[in-house]
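FW: tagging you since you asked about this chain on Friday. Here's the raw sequence from the shared folder, copied in full. Didn't touch anything.
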Amino acid sequence: MRSSASEYNEGQGIKYVVTFHPTLPPPKASEKRRRNARAEAIKSSTYVHEKLSLAEVIEACILAIGRDPQLLQFKVVGTQLRTTAFTIKYSIPGRSALKDMQLTTTTHYDELSKEAVKKGSPEVKLEITEDANDGQSEDELALGPQQKKRKVCPSTDSCAYLIFFQLTDEEEEIAETIVQLKATYMCADKRCSSPTCFLGNPTGQHIRLTPMHLSTWAPAIVRGSKSSSP
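HL: got it, structure written out here
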């Protein structure tokens, strides 16, 4: 939880009005169902601090509609929102041009946030549509939509599936940047237990760079270089 109050909506944050379209449960053996039958939409709203991440906003909205985030799994990898459980569209009420836009990246999230706070009482409408979940695990979500499985049978009694995947251009840049950061900040002090440290502070204190630090820093560097390029 953020220690500082939000600047908007009397300290509550940006208001998210959520409409959730769930999938229908499987029909019973004797049940007849129209081809275009749909489950009733669930509507709710919540306030989220403007400084929270895309993942935190989505989780708060899922909780607001009374669903378990573990059942509507998603993962934000680099700048990409990855999920096979649902799709999200966003709209900014009023005269904004942002209507029924797909929310699939952190860039989209930054865009909707900047547009929303132009109003005195910022509000965002989210429409979440549940998809038939294909049972992807958290690790598979991290591999991304371009993953492919190849069946390998070393013997007639055992088979395995090897997962091959291709990174997007941006993900390759992020991966290369992480390698560069590790090389730049490699710690040569044998007394230090961390392989990478940041020493650019007045005290010269070793600040350990964890994988989480690097995975957050690298995308920011990549996005910054793109925004500054002509």
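FW: The chain is about 25% helix and 25% strand.
HL: agreed, and Confidence is low (pLDDT under 50) at residues 145-165.
FW: great, closing this out.
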